Amino acid sequence: MDRDCTSSLVEQVREASARRLPLRIVGGDTKRFYGRAVEGTALATHEHSGILRHDPAELVLTARGGTPLAEIEAALASKGQRLPFEPPHFGPGATLGGTVACGLSGPARAWSGPLRDFVLGVRVLTGDGRVLRFGGEVMKNVAGYDVARLMAGSLGILGVLLDVSLKVLPLPSGERTLALEMDDAAALARLAELARSALPLSAGSWIDGRAYLRFEGSDATLDEVQRRIGGELVPDARGFWASLREQTHPFFVGDAPLWRCTVPPLAPRLSLAGTPLIEWNGLQRWYRCPPGVTAFEAAAAVGGHATLFRHAPVGVDVFSPLPPAMLRLHHALKREFDPAGILNPGRLYADL
Amino acid sequence: MTPDPALVSELTSALGADAVLVSAEACAPFECDALNTQRHRPDVVALPRSPGQVMAVLNACRRHATPVVARGAGTGLSGGALPVPGGVLLVLSRLNRIIEIDPARRIARVEPGVTNLEISQAAAPDGLYYAPDPSSQVACTIGGNVAENSGGVHCLKHGLTVHNLLEVRVATIEGDWLTLGSASGEAPGLALLPLFTGSEGMLGVTVEATVQLKPLPERVELVMAAFGDVRRCADAVGRIIAAGIVPAGLEMMDAPAIRAAEAFVHCGYPTDAAALLLCELDGLNHDVQRELGAVQALLHECGATSSRVATDAAERLRMWSGRKSAFPAVGRLAPDYFCMDGTIPRRHLADVLERIGEMSRAAGLPVANVFHAGDGNLHPLILFDAGQPGEVERAEHLGAEILELCVAVGGTVTGEHGVGVEKLGPMCTQFGAAELEAFHALKRAFDPGGLLNPGKAIPTLARCADYGAMRVHGGKLPFAHLPRF
Asked: How far apart are CA A36 and CA A33, in angstroms?
């Protein structure tokens, strides 16, 4: 459903700002688990919906924040294109605004780059009711500070995403996923080695004693890759990668806290109990830890960061702590975009 | 202006006497960057050798409430490193160490004064390279690349600086060290690394950068095609991309640029063509083969009058040499030129070039166009003679008109050269007062005293009011409600 709800959203934010009432921004409500819990009145964005522009020859799509991600992906696929960062939906109602605000990328992240790389422009509603436009609909644009990319992963604490312009790319001509038996240490070495080769490794993960390698390209390329790599062709590869992206794989089932650790290439095994699920050629590692255990120190010990992604007790910090100077900067930016502190307060860090 | 003796003595004791320049002769080489129509001899030049010394300079400037401008190699085209009166010029060229090239992790960690090309050269033995390749890559430094979010001819496929940067270590004017981004590419909190990238030295000073290296492609092919009219060439660009092909480079030149380049470097360009397209494909052997066939067929369909595939690396370099020397080649046609840097949605290309031609004729000043066609980044080169009364003003006026046209069709006033001091006026046509105020607020969060590179990148509202007064369009005066100073 195409509908411009800008004026209604502005009115709701201005009223909340005047009364200093916290707002919890809700798109499809598919990622409520992510970040710290927010107490506040729901500001629903899903009715502010619709694809505004998509010219395949420009490789740019612009849509309203409430547009369903599924609608965008279908529109792109119909023209042979895709969102290169393969975002997770985590539910049927996922919206573009929520996707960009959470800044999460899927299995293709290590190949194509993170979501923020593809943000070209935004129209954003600030906490005091200003509607501002940053960036644009062109690939190269260095006029003014890059506030558009600042919105990627900001979890709504700086503004409500009204419209977003993204760079999109053509679908590959083909994909093939190969599985090889090996342990996690061997997989980390193999994935890093493949990532530095010229082979088109579009996703690389490891789970339950098997490395899964997805390649993309022409049939001739894929045939050659398969000859060089060996391994077993994974039959329902699409389903497998979707089960990682959407966290429907058995690894993700159950209520044990789910930790996401992002670490530098070739980082060794983390000092955490349990076997991880490895993604992004080793850069992203998932752990299920008993309640009370935190992964912040283990990730920091190898130069990485951790997020308590799901099943966090209320009130605890879920993101790696920021150094004091960084935290001060976050507060300074928050004050400029949301002086009354009403947008998703505390979702990223307490008091922010 | 005489520098503050207390500040100079503080800098001297922190950096050593040979690292602080105050004499007119010593400071003169730093009076401008590549935008050499604007000059100001700095009062003090500081040449630190370490991150600690960079911080010492910033701390001293803060204590003395003295503005400070960071500079790399001074190759910037928009005046971003132009010294400001009464300020310190912080020159980072002595921080020029490659700290590490780690081929297994595909990263390079470097100090800001390392040149762009040095990184690729250092990584080449391991089969890796650093993808962004601004035309000044032999001289420009990575610190400047971060400040400008530099691009190059391979951006469409391989990204800008922001896409190839993992982490920067920043010294702030408040005396803090910040680490933005991380070696994994993911960092907690707000996405400050992309915000910092391209911020033109307004938010902090880069003292170390970690960049991503890429594997050298297995195969590279370059196709050159000539067209009898610009519209057909522009159409070919759109058709190639719509066909699902993302070339590594897709460059277009118009007739004046083709002829100037051929006369300058004799690279075999067809001088009777109205437009020339260079399309570079890279990747795995089979994929490049398939794309090459598809591109050749599309070029034929779009009415290319001739097309040619470079037979070897030497011919490929020769074909590129014309494009890469287009600025100096065009520069030979007139005593002076301005290089514009607008970006437009590609579908408007033919109309925009036609309109620029009309503006050029009306202004009586020739314009040659080179164009990063793949990503819509247009470089009209306006030829003029500063020695002729009124020509500088006419050229500036024409440049502003061209940038306004870029904004009007949904583009931007700068794709890769930055705003600096050069495009402060045109920024007023692209952004409204509310966005400009937000930019100023954002700077305050990093630099409450407004000491870092003051007066650059973001125009004041007062300046926009003046700019509006000079340039009334359709009876609408931008910022009419603002006071003028």
From this structure: 8
Check whether domain A6-171 has CATH 3.40.1260.10, yes or no: no
Cβ B438–A116 below 8 Å, yes or no?
no
Beta strands (DSSP E) in B127-248 are 128-129, 165-171, 177-181, 205-212, 214-215, 219-227
Which chain B residues have a beta carbon less than 8 Å from that of A328?
176
Least Cα separation, residue B330 to chain A (angstroms): 24
Closest CA to A114 of A85, A90, A139: A85
What was the ipTM of the complex prediction? 0.98
| SS3 assignment, position A300 | helix
What whole-number distance in Å separates Cα of residue A159 and Cα of residue A101? Answer: 9
Domains along the sequence of chain B with CATH: 5-91 (3.30.43.10), 98-215 (3.30.465.10), 219-327 (3.30.70.2190), 334-418 (3.30.70.2740)
The pTM of the full predicted model, rounded to 2 decimals, is 0.96
Q: How far apart are the first and last CA of chain B?
A: 24
B90 contacts B71 by C-beta, under 8 angstroms? yes
- Taking CA atoms, what residue in B is nearest to A264? B184
Please check the confidence at residue B485 and state whether its pLDDT lies above 90. no
Mean pLDDT of A163-188: 97
Query: Where along chain A do its domains lie?
Result: 6-171, 175-310
- The rounded Cα B275 to chain-centroid distance in angstroms is 24
Closest chain A CA to residue B193: A150
Residue in this structure with the two tokens 């990503």, named with its chain if needed: B375
The angle, 0 to 180 degrees and rounded to 10, between the axes of the packed helices B313-324 and B255-265 is: 120
B138-170 pLDDT per residue, tens: 999 999 999 999 998 899 899 999 999 999 999
A37 class by beta-carbon count within 10 Å (0-12 exposed, 13-18 middle, 19+ buried): middle
B251-290 residues touching A, CB cutoff 8 A: 283-287, 289-290
Q: Does A237 touch chain B (CB under 8 A)?
A: no
